[in-house]
Design goal:
Blueprint lengths: L3 H27 L3 H10 L3 H13 L6 H18 L2 H14 L4 H13 L3 H12 L6 H13 L3 H14 L4 H13 L3 H14 L4 H13 L3 H14 L9 H12 L3 H14 L4 H13 L3 H14 L4 H14 L2 H15 L9
Helix pairs in contact: 2-3, 3-4, 4-5, 5-6, 6-7, 6-8, 7-8, 8-9, 8-10, 9-10, 10-11, 10-12, 11-12, 12-13, 13-14, 14-15, 14-16, 15-16, 16-17, 17-18, 18-19
């Protein structure tokens, strides 16, 4: 027979257990759902983590309806696309479309994923289906245009980009892609206007400044090209991820203007950003040769050849430089290799 004290202890123990369970239940109720956690991770651009949370959410019991579970699946696809997992994103979005074949958001997302995965024909087919359900936005039209870029059809790309800027004249990305496409067609005056629009919307944009410089250079407007290249270089000085491209273009143009000392400084900065870029080392070698710094030029060209061993131009330039340095055997070897890579009916570039 249990004593009164034993019964009291037992009751107290049961009370503690029940209190613990009650507190745990409250804590669980206050814990954000997997879907909510996924939304938070997505908003903070932690896309890989968001994808995992949405994947768990789509199959968890927390989803009250099939529609909620499907929405989590679509968000998983968006997260995977932003994380760069294009195969995973394609699978997730196609799984969602099995439940809703006429979902315009899912179709437009799939078209985007397929474009990024270098599947332009499939992407265009999906965009056609999507457009029949919902009018495309400027960003949707931009992706359609980029499909045509992948197909090397710049006339159609320009046509769709021009429609996109009509839909949203404030979309800097569309103006930039329009300028790039017009450059590819040799219409540098139109490209210049497109890049000017980008800069009006996003002052100091490095990519737009760099391409505006290329447009000026193609029109032989050298002072303007030098000015905007320098502006591009200045604009990215505080960037955590600067690009070597404006430095490369600026330095190359400085060489052509016989401003060798400036070119060397600019191109050395480019190599600090992109030490494995053969073009940067090739142009620095040109600047060194122009300054009669032949051993340093040889070092840069040798590294350029190591980085891009199938480039016949680099072998030709190195062969010419070996000749200047008196290394005839090395010179013949590089020139022979250059001829082999060019083909017997090609003329090597002497730039």
């Amino acid at each position: 027979m249990k004593t009164p004290n034993a019964n009291a202890r037992r009751a107290a123990w049961l009370g503690v257990v029940l209190l613990t369970v009650w507190i745990a239940g409250i804590a669980a109720a206050q814990q954000p759902s997997l879907y909510a956690q996924g939304q938070q991770a997505y908003a903070e651009k932690r896309y890989a983590e968001a994808a995992k949370l949405f994947a768990a959410s789509s199959t968890a019991k927390e989803q009250a309806t099939e529609a909620q579970a499907a929405d989590a699946l679509l968000m998983e696809g968006r997260s995977l696309a932003n994380a760069g997992d294009l195969a995973g994103a394609e699978h997730a979005v196609k799984s969602y479309l099995e439940q809703d074949l006429r979902s315009a958001p899912a179709l437009y997302l799939l078209g985007y994923v397929l474009q990024r995965a270098n599947k332009p024909k499939e992407s265009l087919e999906v965009f056609t289906r999507a457009a029949a359900i919902r009018r495309p936005t400027a960003n949707d039209l931009r992706i359609v245009a980029l499909d045509y870029v992948l197909l090397n059809d710049y006339l159609d790309a320009i046509r769709w980009l021009e429609r996109a800027v009509q839909e949203d004249p404030q979309n800097a990305d569309v103006w930039y892609d329009l300028g790039r496409s017009q450059m590819n067609q040799g219409n540098f005056v139109a490209a210049e206007k497109a890049f000017d629009r980008v800069l009006a919307l996003v002052p100091g944009d490095v990519k737009a400044l760099n391409n505006l410089g290329l447009s000026y250079e193609a029109q032989n407007r050298i002072p303007d090209a030098l000015r905007v290249y320098q502006e591009a270089v200045t604009s990215q000085r505080s960037s955590a991820h600067p690009s070597e491209q404006p430095l490369l273009n600026y330095g190359t143009l400085l060489i052509s203007q016989n401003r060798t000392a400036e070119a060397v400084a600019v191109l050395e900065s480019a190599i600090k950003i992109a030490p494995k870029d053969a073009k940067c080392r090739e142009q620095l070698a040109r600047a060194y040769q122009q300054d009669d710094r032949l051993p340093e030029a040889r070092e840069q060209l040798e590294q350029a050849v190591a980085l891009d061993p199938k480039n016949p131009r680099l072998h030709y330039q190195l062969g010419r430089l070996y000749h200047r340095l008196g290394s005839e055997e090395k010179s013949r070897s590089e020139l022979d290799l250059s001829a082999k890579l060019y083909g017997t009916h090609s003329t090597p570039e002497t730039k």
